[in-house]
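Exercise 4. Each item below gives a protein and its sequence. For each, produce the structure-token representation.

Item: Tetratricopeptide repeat protein (Adhaeribacter swui).
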Amino acid sequence: MKKNYFYTASLVLLVVTGIVLFQKYQNVSEPIPPLRERQGPISTTSEWLNTKAAIQGLQRKLREKPGDLKSKLLLALAYMQEARITGEHPYYYPAALQLVEEILDREPDDQVLVYEATVAKATIQLSLHQFEAALKTGKAALQINNQGAAVYGVLCDANVELGHYEEAIVMADKMASLRPDLKSYSRVSYLREIHGDMPGAIEAMQLAIDAGFPGLEQTAWVTVTLGSLYEKTGDLKNAEAQYNKALAQSSNYAFALGGLGRLAVKQKDYQTAEQIFTQAAGIIPEFSFQEELVRLYQQQNKIIKAKATMEELLEGLEEDQAAGHVVDLELANIHLQLGKDPDKALVYAMKEYKRRPDNIDVCKALAEIYYQKQDYKTAATYLKKATRTSSQDAGLVCLDGLVKFHLGDQINGTHLIQKSLALNPYQNTTLSTEGRNLVSKAISKILFH
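Answer:
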């Protein structure tokens, strides 16, 4: 009897202690990730002052009431946007993910909040290139709400990155039917692009711009993307118009500057290109600007500058990788195209291939690596997967032609190389240069024999 009483008393004590601890700590969360001060030109805009005030207001609310999950979600969304604007991905995406995970760990009864937090989590995972995880999270959000457009957006993106293109089209169509706006039209545009419909891609991206609000970062992004579509087809005049349009709305929009820098390179105005890329890199730490600078320095035989910028580029990407941002494909392309090291590139590319063997960009990278290693048969096996969507990417078409040419199918190989140069006559890569030389020799052989 005494023994039973002892156990009962102990159990009551444990329950009471648990209740007290729960009441004491139910509103205690991890420390709120602080807002970082912006640097350079983007730190002097009225948009930054408004953003800073809004974020500080949310942080104040959470200090006063740590259990305010709606404010926590708004802060996570604000940090996701800061990542886009500042390029500080290694800091803001993990910070946003921490906040979202705290919300979901609480298992709130508000299903709208749970849905929005789950979609936000999937979006962060996409930004970190954690595509399998994003697909799984997106499917979890779909179970909560199958009538929200946002969930179909993340499912579209995840399926695209994993190479599930038919499923991605279904998701994009569903999203556009629920909410025909900037986000849905831009996804339709990309799917048209990778399936070889460049006029359709341009049309859909223009619809995305028309659906946006001037001055917002998202509108500037799709405007620059439309410019890049024109650039890919060799229409430099319209490309320049779109980049300038984005800059007219946001004078420090780095990606628009990057577009103008690429156009300057195509026009062989290397001094202007260097100034523009340096300016863009000074606004946000975006690896593509450093990549363009390395390429530019190499073209001009500025070896010391190229080496120093390459080291900074790789250091930044490794920092991203350490923060959970998977950048193996980017590293593979950099080591191949800038480092001229196909063996090192292969290590990174195979890591990415194991994650998403059906993605056409991953397969293209592997095809180019094996081409540079002069293993044309292996390159052809990856090209079979890389070309299955009938993409009219000029670089991919050129690579396909070169591989066919070296495997003995010189007629089709020459035809594809010529097609590539017609698709985009302003290509200036190792592949395009080799392609031009092969075509020139083939024509000379026909004329003089």
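Check: The radius of gyration is 26 Å.
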